Amino acid sequence: MKRLLHTMPPLPSIAIVVTSYAPFIGGGETAAAQLATFLTRQGRRVMVVTQRFDRRHARREVLDGVDVFRVGFPGRRRALAKWLASPAFFRTLMRERGRFDVVVCIDYRAAGIAALLARGWNRRPVVFQAQTDGVIGGARVREALATAGLGNVRWLADLATWPIRRIYDGADAYCCISRLIERETLEAGVPRERVHYLPNPVDTALFRPAATAERLALRAKFGVDPEAVVAIFAGRLSREKGALDLIEAWCQGMPERAELIVVGPDMTGHPWDVGPAARARAASASRPVRFVGPQTQAALAEWLRLADVHVQPSHFEAFGTSAIEAMASGLPVIASDVGGLRDFVAPGVNGVRVPPKDPVALAGAMSLLLADTARRSALAAGALATAPAFAIDRVLGRYIEIIDRAVALAADAVQSPRL
Q1: Which of 100, 116, 289, 313 gives a 20 to 30 Å CA spacing to 41?
Q2: What is the pLDDT of residue 111?
Q3: What does the angle CA 24 – CA 122 – CA 96 come to, to the nearest 5 degrees?
Q4: Which helix (H) or strand (E) element contains residue 310?
């Protein structure tokens, strides 16, 4: 037995590559941090490679037991910055190749190209996880063709997007956080055995419902009316998150004692920032609106436990982590009928779906649900029944299986090269 233990190979070490990481808050950042922490607790050696947006952030530091390398030049978080940082990602993956056996690329657009280029030299397998739909399918190219009136010319769209599909089809595995991304990946020609549906997880120990006494205590702690019916939004105060649509809907009139809590940061300096406009519009609402700014995960969990309804009016959403966190907290969800939200927000079961960019429809859904205690209770029960399928141990346990299989297959390919 001792000899067997001595001959067992070490567990694969992982490099997680992600555009931005803590202290920034967002779906990709949360997914990367959860995976890094989970892998570390499982005894894996983990490093994170991310962009250095702020000069105050160290180029290398340890966060929650994880080695974090920050690369590139400090600057604003803009789309172009992702591409400008690609060479720095490549250099780091080459320089540090002795520290990892596999690369997991979360939000793989620019960073994914760097990982695939490095793979040609460091021979480390690459696992992709998209945090938005349309990447491998060339959605932006197809939109441009549609704008030019050529959207229905299938052969032209396929030809124009071929380079994109060819670039991204070299990963060893694809973890798809929504069924839409799964379909896009398969339609791009990636073999079924490399494509896996794997939604973002939720920490069901942190995000959980509150008993009545705890709920009242939390309301007292944060100065929330114990008799209020509370709707909550959690996300960036950004145009695409529907933050301005939410405030516009709220201003159309809500039931007595209704309150809205808005959790999340402004997108200062970003063209999609609507924080100032949302606060200005909220000043004319007949029911209270409270902006509490960005919060830690622990604090967000407390805000959710004191609320009654969660609202996620996104214009597009690859998954919708905030919605599943709310469900795990025992809240029914009002969400836009878009993207990954369709995978788990089931009308009449655990929530309500409304058309995106439609403040009138959103106002109607919020008003009805906030006024109907019995319906809220029924949908809350459905939400709690939905959440366990997204529990961290269940989802990330499967992630480890996919990562280890990619490592094993890559090792077999090296040992048994094609003739």
Answers
A1: 116
A2: 87
A3: 45
A4: strand 309-312
